[in-house]
Amino acid sequence: MRVIWLLLVAAFVAILNETTMAIAIPELNKALGIPPELGQWLTSAFMLTMAVVIPTTGFLLQRFTTRQIFLAAMMLFSAGTLICLVSQGFILLLVGRIVQAAGTGIMMPLLMTTMMNVVPAHSRGRMMGRVGLVISLAPAIGPTMSGIVLDSLGWRWLFGIILPIALIALALGAKWMTNLGESTHAPIDFVSIILSVFAFGGIVYGLSQFGGGHGGESGGGSTTGLAWATIGGGVVFLALFVWRQLFLQKDDRALLDLRVFNSRNYVFSVIIMAVVALSMFGTFSLLPLYLQSVVGLNATQSGLVLLPGSVIMGLLGPVMGRIYDARGPKTLLVPGTIMIAVSMFAYSTAGVGTPIWLLITIQIVMSLGLAASFTPLFSASLGSLERHLYSHGSAALNTLQQVAGAAGTALLISIYSAALHAGQAEGKSVPEAGAPGGHAAFLLATVIAIVPIILAFFIRKPEDQEEYPAEVVEPTASSPAE
């Protein structure tokens, strides 16, 4: 059991680090004397590295032992954090962020695959609820912590606080982490890696350029043209990547085994997860801009709007897991997806006169919907696969979640930015110019969010999870969960 907790802590630290950077970019631009378009590479390069690393984890988690993968991931993450801490300029800081991302990209697939392999089927909902806690609580704390640290200590302490925690996790992993499951000796296919780099890297990079790179100023027609060209090239390489995996998986040599998509339950779950990720990451990216520019809140107030709901979402993760174990996915997914869609529509009506308490309420409702969706989706999707496909299923799920998150950020911010710039060109104030864009962005997100509501009725609990009673004793250190 302590192995699972160690992985949860490591994943929490990695995601916390990932979410502290967005609010720090303006401060880093000033401190390093670099233009905004260059500073955005500190987040773009991180996303690109994650998009390249995650698809390879399906193979890596089968080729190497759990202990080897964990120690490698934490050493990369710790080394990257140290490089960022001591860097004196932009280039070294960028290198540190790339090294950090290489470790971060391994951590979530490792956590989910290990949990599927060692936790009994009848307890997976409860344990996946803890995964939901990690992926929701860290993004809630990250921006708030970043703002406090930047105002009181300076940007280096963003890494100075993370580094000791990462080193402790690394030390505990060296002492406690055991080898779980069996490793294979299949040779790695370097052609697949190259295709993966250009496929997923191209798509994510292209998406990140819309809206000026995570919400910056629009780069005009040249930037838009480059973005579409990069996405188009990424799609071509993706087709080649898929073709090669279909060929290699006949001999169990695929970098990413696509047989995971033979399961209808897995496919429906992944589609819902992609749309949920689009909604969550898009909202978390656009909402602070919208609240500050249109509604008129300051940075602290906009952070407080997001914080309560995210904390509630994290704390409810284990509760949702118990409900899933007892009643299955539909009990959670149907109301959860409805709450997400309703919240998106409510945000589309927000404006200058909207009271803060109503905004907080809307975000809490959305967070409840996300909490009710994550646990059954993780459990039902991976639980529908054969054991030898767990690592590939986790890799595919996290890859699509990453791409969908980038797409959500690009979609919502580009719609908002286009309306904002058009309105300002007509002489309107920022609130007047940005309001129509925000309304349109959240309304489109509402329409997209209808898809998960429909698919939620088709998600079933995997049969192996129905063979056991719902109420079980918590795994102990001597149980299979360790």
Features:
Growth Hormone, Chain: A; transmembrane helix; MFS_dom; MFS; 18 helices; mainly alpha; 2 domains; disordered C terminus; 482 residues; EmrB-like; transport
Helical/strand content category: mainly alpha
Report the radius of gyration as a whole number of Å. 21 Å
| Secondary structure tally, helices | 18
CATH names the topology of the largest domain as: Growth Hormone, Chain: A
Q: Give the tally of structural domains.
A: 2
Unreliable sequence segments? 211-219, 467-482
Order of helices and strands: HHHHHHHHHHHHHHHHHH
User: So what's the CATH class of the largest domain?
Assistant: Mainly Alpha
CATH architecture of the largest domain: Up-down Bundle
Gross geometry: globular
Calculate the terminal CA-CA distance, rounded to whole Å.
Answer: 4 Å
Summarize the main sheet: none
Number of strands: 0
CATH superfamily of the largest domain: MFS general substrate transporter like domains
- What amount of the residues lies in strands? under 5%
Give helix % range.
over 70%
Q: Give the integer mean of the pLDDT values.
A: 82
Give an account of the 3D structure.
- With 482 residues, the protein is an all-alpha fold.
- The protein has two domains: 1-178, Growth Hormone, Chain: A (Up-down Bundle), CATH 1.20.1250; 256-465, MFS general substrate transporter like domains (Growth Hormone, Chain: A), CATH 1.20.1250.
- The chain contains 18 helices and no strands.
- The chain has helices at 2-20, 25-32, 36-39, 41-53, 57-63, 66-86, 90-118, 124-152, 156-176, 190-209, 220-248, 264-295, 299-327, 330-348, 356-383, 390-425, 430-448, 450-456.
- Helix 4 runs parallel beside helix 7, helix 8 (124-152) crosses helix 15 and helix 12 (264-295) packs antiparallel against helix 18.
- Residues 211-219 and 467-482 have low confidence and may be disordered.
